Description:
Blueprint: E1 2-6, H1 11-22, E2 26-31, H2 38-43, E3 46-49, H3 59-62, E4 67-70, H4 80-100, E5 106-110, H5 136-149, E6 157-161, E7 164-166, H6 174-183, E8 185-189, E9 198-200, H7 201-214, E10 228-230, H8 239-250, E11 256-260, H9 262-279, H10 287-293, H11 303-309, H12 317-330
Helix pairs in contact: 1-7, 4-5, 6-8, 8-12, 9-10
Amino acid sequence: MKALVTGANGFIGEHLVRTLLKHGESARAMVRREEAGERLKALGAEIVLGDVTQPETLAPAVVDVDVVFHLAGLVKALHRDELFKVNEEGVRNIARACAEAPSPPVLVLVSSLAAAGPAVDGHARTEDEPAAPISNYGRSKRAGELAALEFADRVPLTIVRPPSVFGEGDMNTWPLFQAVARHGLYAAPGRKPHKLSMIHADDLAEALWLAAAKGKRASKGNPAADGCYFVASDQDPGHDELGRLIAEAVGRPRVHVLHAPDWLVRGAGAASEFVSHLRGQATIFNSDKMREASAGSWVCSSDRIRNELGFHVARPLAERIRQTAAWYKSHGLL
């Protein structure tokens, strides 16, 4: 398999490149700047320059590849339009480039549970349920799915929707570990006992590799059925349990879980967003993400990908959290 990975220098992208190389595949890493690809080049990946918001740069990147893993995307932005420019139009650009290639490659689109929406009545979401995103981020990721489906009659397409992704190199989850390590505090959104699906980046990378090799392909007229997979760890912890697992991983004997009311969560997100606008720098702690955080449980079922592709996580959630904490410690972040 010769694979192109967009967003290859990102947190998940590097894990995927390592996984592809481990399986003996050929990895082409697309980055926007030459220097951003130095680490990947040292691993053995081929580097190609490209930008999903600049369609003219994509044709050389997709030529002669068997599969394109599309990871490039935004999880935070100062303005809603920025999310859609990358998460919708960027997907449309890469899908069009694949469609126009002499031999269209398989396109594995990495979407998000946010594109589907939170669990309904606490039940794990399945792929057959209609999408109901509640945030601008989720709506932009769903728009990206629909943009890719426009080309599903010309490009073999599989959509993978991970929940919260964590692991070595993840700087969005790091503040949770830092707060527990430094103060013994874990801030949980909402008063109710919500649950979360999670997946380590290495397990997600394995799932993406399986989706490329064996996954069913989406059809243009049936976007919620075949060709779409949720993928998550075998355990869906509540915030109290997650706080305890992080405390054990960072060596804290106990953790105080603070359950903040929804109004406080949303207010704090709005205040943080106001400051980020003043600074001109987007933050993950914003109104959009706090809207998701206070929406209830975010859980999804991995039954389809297990049954159809034989996927399983390599290590239990607690071990993956310890592994992540060890990386933070080794890099002086805790």
